[in-house]
UniProtKB/TrEMBL annotation:
The gene is mmsA. It comes from the Bacteria. This is methylmalonate-semialdehyde dehydrogenase (CoA acylating). GO terms for molecular function: methylmalonate-semialdehyde dehydrogenase (acylating, NAD) activity. SUPFAM superfamilies: ALDH-like. NCBIfam families: MMSDH.
């Protein structure tokens, strides 16, 4: 019998009373390893009631005590790092190394949340008028919620709830129904770290559970990460309901390769950035833009991609795992066929990929197209599979025009030995996260994760100072203390201080 994933409501891990369960499968075998409940109306109501009550006490807990919960939490996450990564690898199919990276990038955010006292500091100005001072505080908002995707089941929940909770809020997490075991383990360790009852709730399910959070008047702020159509839906419905919303969406990330770059570094970096994690990363490089003579490296890149193979999470020779579901595999293979029909040169074909002993896995081999044009479906769509598209241009200006015409703006990178070219690219490119000789420029938590255009809807981004702004209200105080009655000089009829 497969494991029934519990809900976390009011500090207890409880079995849902729902009759609607979603199977969680091992994508390398299709074996059902667990079932996730679609939380019922009364379970969702209970989660909100508990989050409301917990907020009244949690917001009064001194900030250094809140920080200490995060210190204990990051220590526990480190202690259980490999065990979490193993659960994560089994339900996502990621290789163990990659799964460990997913957990680690989340732990870094918790370490950052442990610095919450200094992050919450407000501003002060003395003597804004005679004997009058002004200062500001950041105060928590109340109940915040987060809806997360399948592709980083540790890192992305950890982008959200530790910072929101460290700010003094309570939080309701609705993880992806495709890999709920990892977020559930994160929640267990959070409770073990001493998080008071009700500060974090975990509700599982799909659209109905998301709609509940979008419509509930007491949910003040909502963080979302996932695909573009769902991000747009969430941003529209959430803001229509007067909530603060940040919605991180899909991507089409370009890497510009200048002819003066180091060829071997370019090839090594492009292989990992394009097909690593089976291309199921919002920061994966999916388009390689070869400038001028750099196109001569395309055959060598094709050879390097042919050497890479997928495999099971615990196969040390495997470079990446299966796609998350048979539907995802079917969709990616269909896009590959479409690219071929549209006239792109299929130099490496990953369709029909097989892995010894695992005939039912959602395998797609590394795939590489050259001669890709902007009107082809494989260029326009986020493939979210191990597929790299190469395109050729004659100059850096042409490369910039191509990247800037793309509707997405999550990440990009340039490989060059020329500082002036790198400076020009960094300055002129209309993308929120830029790598210079770095293929996947995901910022560390003291910065923020800053996608642009169709890759992000909202204004304040994830983690860093921006997340603290997102999860708090600012209160400004203007104060005067009278020294004696002489200060009271009669009614002041103007708005001057
Ligand atoms: P998804 O949009 O299918 O699902 C994300 C979440 O939304 C899940 O929790 C799911 O249950 C919920 N959901 C799905 N359909 C819904 C609907 N109709 N109404 C309400 N809620 C719904 O995304 P996914 O397939 O899990 O994740 C992959 C996508 O996420 C890719 O597009 C990837 O680029 C994107 N992503 C973006 C970032 C970023 O930071 N920009 C990071 C990671 C992933």
């Amino acid at each position: 019998m497969s494991k029934k994933v519990p809900l976390l409501i009011d500090g207890e891990f409880v079995a849902s009373s729902t009759s609607n369960w979603i199977p969680v499968t091992n994508p390398a075998t299709q074996e059902v390893i667990a079932e996730a409940p679609c939380a019922t109306q009364s379970e969702m109501d209970a989660a909100v009631a508990s989050a409301r009550e917990a907020f009244q006490t949690w917001k009064e807990v001194p900030v250094s005590e809140r920080a200490r919960v995060m210190m204990r939490y990051q220590a526990l996450l480190k202690e259980h790092h490999d065990e979490i990564a193993e659960t994560l690898a089994q339900e996502t199919g990621k290789t163990f190394e990659d799964a460990k990276g997913d957990v680690w990038r989340g732990i870094e955010v918790v370490e950052h949340a442990a610095n919450i006292p200094s992050l919450l500091m407000g501003e002060t100005v003395e003597n804004v008028a005679r004997k009058i001072d002004s200062y500001s505080y950041t105060q928590p908002m109340g109940i915040c919620a987060g809806i997360t995707p399948f592709n980083f089941p540790a890192m992305i929940p950890l982008w959200m709830f530790p910072l929101a909770i460290a700010c003094g809020n309570t939080f309701i997490l609705k993880p992806s129904e495709q890999d709920p075991l990892t977020p559930t383990r994160l929640a267990e360790l959070f409770v073990e770290a001493g998080a008071p009852k009700g500060v974090l709730q975990v509700l599982h399910g799909g659209k109905d559970q998301v709609d509940f959070l979008l419509d509930h008047p007491e949910v003040r702020a909502l963080s979302f990460v996932g695909s573009v159509p769902v991000a747009q839906y969430i941003y529209r419905r959430g803001t229509e309901n007067m909530k603060r919303v940040q919605a991180f969406a899909g991507a089409k990330n370009h890497c510009v390769i200048m002819p003066d770059a180091n060829k071997q570094q370019v090839i090594n970096n492009l292989v990992g950035a394009s097909v690593g994690a089976a291309g199921q990363r919002c920061m994966a490089i999916s388009v390689a833009v070869f400038v001028g003579k750099a196109k001569e490296w395309i055959p060598e890149l094709a050879e390097a991609l042919k050497q890479v193979r997928p495999g099971a999470w615990n196969d040390e020779g495997a470079s990446y795992g299966p796609l998350i579901s048979p539907q995802a595999k079917k969709r990616v293979e269909k896009l590959i066929s479409q690219g071929e029909q549209e006239g792109a040169q299929l130099l490496v074909d990953g369709r029909g990929c097989e892995v010894d002993g695992l005939p039912n896995g959602n395998w797609v081999g590394p795939t590489f197209f050259a001669g890709v044009k902007p009107d082809m479906e494989i260029y326009k769509t986020e493939i979210f599979g191990p597929v790299l598209c190469a395109t050729e241009v004659e100059s850096l200006d042409e490369a910039l025009a191509l990247v800037n015409a793309n509707p997405f703006g999550n990440g990009t990178s340039i490989f060059t030995a020329n500082g002036a070219a790198a400076r020009k690219y960094q300055h002129e490119v209309e993308v929120g996260q830029v790598g210079i000789n770095i293929p996947i420029p995901v910022p560390l938590p003291f910065f923020s994760f800053t996608g642009w255009k169709n890759s992000f809807f909202g204004d304040l981004h994830a983690y860093g100072k921006q997340a603290v702004r997102f999860y708090t209200e600012t209160k400004t105080v203007t104060a005067r203390w009278f020294e004696s009655d002489i200060d009271a000089t009669g009614p002041n009829m103007s708005i001057h201080l």
